[in-house]
Amino acid sequence: MVAEDGKPSSLRRCHTFPDRPHDARGFFIDSRGTIFAPLKGFVKPPFGRTYASRDCGASFSLAMPACYWGFDEAPGGDLFAGVITSGASPMPPAPFSG
Asked: Residue 59: its pLDDT value, please?
């Protein structure tokens, strides 16, 4: 979604994700301007995915095959992403090269 004048009343959709996810878990923009969009509720597996855009949201590509809910960036630019799982085993680290 984008609002060119900054007003919620003028929001418009600028990108459609595959398989119609229905649950956005927030967005994160890192210091390089990459937008991360963690999404859940896809029709086909993996049911949670994190997409990234390097062109101000004009296009997105799959960055990580899980829905990472929390992001943080270290002063040196390293990105940390976290996910909550329902199982006993944690998700393996998912490297992302920006």
From this structure: 84
